[in-house]
Specification:
The chain is of the alpha+beta class. The chain has two domains: 2-100, Topoisomerase, domain 3; 145-447, Neuraminidase (6 Propeller), CATH 2.120.10. Helices cover 23% and strands 28% of the residues. The strands form six sheets. Strands 4-1-2-7 form a four-stranded antiparallel sheet, with no helix packed on it. Strands 3-22-21-24 form a four-stranded antiparallel sheet, with no helix packed on it. A four-stranded antiparallel sheet has the order 8-5-6-11, with no helix packed on it. Helix 2 (32-41) runs antiparallel to helix 3 and helix 3 (45-56) crosses helix 4. The radius of gyration is 25 Å and the shape is globular.
Length: 450
């Protein structure tokens, strides 16, 4: 235990040092011309360091980091890369702090490392141990119940009974679903039975197994428990999709869609052997990430929706089943600055529900979307502009479904799908939630009849 604690403390100290330097580089980027001018006008390196500290309120370490870079590199710094690395380091700091503050998590790490040693060097037991009496499954003691499972951007998960949330009219302000923290907000919500498996697909294309009843319950205003305490996520890995599964049947497959529009289909049976360390679900191209995963059959029609408001519909059978290590094929051609916003399975008697970041929503019949071969650019699905913002998600809904709306400030609201009338493809939609200043819609989920 002490070894894990010391190792984590060392990594935390290194991460804090790197974050401190990155903060200095961000300041330099914000005042790039002034920083370069200050360095050029300083007669010596020491004087330049002193001037940077004084003028931009930098620490000696930050000033030295700036001076250690050639002017040519300094001017070539990309703000996006610096900000992405800074965000990644901050998340790593939060993860490491979580480990140091959690004896359970430290024990979990020790257990995982011991399991790896056993897997690598151990051999089979030579004596057989036989249990007396009937084997009692832990699940037999768990009452089956519909739960709302929520996951935050910061990686916290919890479950509450579905009855916790009441229905409201569209356009209302919503019910507080959690107490939002400065760097955290609700990201994903779904409804599942306590006996269901959750397949947790991550941005790195890996998948983990988690029983719903093993997710801790928490109060309505609580963020819940860190996912890293329940799943052994790797560095830089975060959940992107939670898929509920009761039985691993051969007639179903999992369709995975990446942000860049690549699709891959793998038989569900290949995910029927849970491993505590997780497995690879698909290999990703550099710069790509797993956006969403769906359970599908060969006859299902799939709609991919892009952030820019375009959609393409094709039959699942056009994508052949592949092994877990394959990369997949092109599902939708996207513009350079576009990305996939949602993946929907077409269902008879239902329609496509789209929501935008600025609180607009619309419902469009699936029949208005022509079926094409995969790989095309698709057709217009929504008329977007400054007032609506980009598409943030897409769902398949029927009249009596309820839709959960989640905002970046932690507001949660349920509306009836019937409160949003059906309209054509080239339309903007209606306001479905009133957002406070600085707030935005970040995710939606559908509640089917129970």
């Amino acid at each position: 235990e002490e070894v894990v604690r010391r190792r984590t403390a060392y990594l935390l100290e290194e991460a804090r040092k790197r974050a401190h330097i990155l903060e200095g580089l961000k300041i330099a980027l914000d005042h790039l011309d002034e920083v370069i001018e200050t360095i050029k006008k300083s007669p010596t390196v020491e004087k330049a360091k002193e001037n940077l500290i004084k003028k931009f309120s930098l620490s000696p370490v930050q000033a030295q980091a700036i001076l250690d870079m050639r002017l040519q590199r300094l001017t070539g710094l990309e703000r996006k890369k610096i900000e992405e690395e800074y965000l990644s380091v901050i998340k790593e700091i939060v993860r490491l702090e979580g480990i140091l503050s959690s004896p359970y998590q430290i024990r979990n790490i020790i257990r995982e490392e011991l399991e790896e040693l056993v897997e690598k060097y151990g051999d089979e037991r030579r004596t057989e141990i036989v249990e007396k009496g009937e084997e009692l499954d832990e699940e037999d003691l768990i009452r089956e119940e519909k739960m709302v499972v929520t996951v935050t951007e910061g990686g916290y998960i919890k479950r509450l009974p579905l009855s916790t949330y009441r229905i409201q009219e569209r356009g209302g302000k919503g019910l507080k679903g959690m107490e939002a923290k400065e760097e955290d907000f609700l990201k994903t919500i779904l409804v599942a039975s306590t006996h269901d498996y959750l397949l947790c697909f991550t941005n790195l294309g890996r998948v983990y197994w988690l029983k719903v009843y093993k997710i801790p319950t928490a109060g309505r205003l609580s963020r819940g428990k860190a996912v890293v305490n329940l799943l052994p996520l790797k560095e830089g890995e975060s959940p992107t999709t939670f898929l509920k599964v009761r039985e691993f049947s051969e007639d179903k497959s999992i369709l995975m869609v990446t942000g860049k529009g690549t699709v891959k289909k793998t038989s569900l049976i290949e995910f029927s052997r849970p491993r505590s360390t997780g497995i690879i679900a698909l290999n990703l191209e550099e710069g790509d990430y797993l956006k969403e995963a769906k359970l599908v059959s060969e006859e299902d029609e799939i709609i991919l929706v892009s952030k820019s408001g375009r959609a393409i519909k094709f039959v699942s059978g056009e994508v052949r089943n592949m092994g877990r290590n394959a990369q997949g094929v092109k599902g939708m051609s996207l513009a350079k600055d576009d990305a996939i916003a949602g993946v929907v399975i077409v269902k008879e008697g239902e329609s496509l529900f789209l929501a935008t970041e600025k609180g607009y929503g619309k419902r469009t019949p699936f029949t208005l979307f022509p079926c094409h071969h995969r790989g095309g650019k698709g057709v217009i699905a929504a008329k977007l502009g400054e007032k609506t913002g980009e598409i943030i998600s897409a769902l398949s809904v029927k009249e009596n479904d309820q839709i959960m709306l989640l905002t970046s400030q932690g507001m949660v609201m349920r509306i009836s799908a019937s409160s949003v009338r059906e309209m054509g493809r080239n339309t903007r939609g209606v306001r479905i939630i009133t957002l406070s200043e600085g707030d935005s819609l970040v995710d939606i989920a559908v509640f089917k009849e129970i």
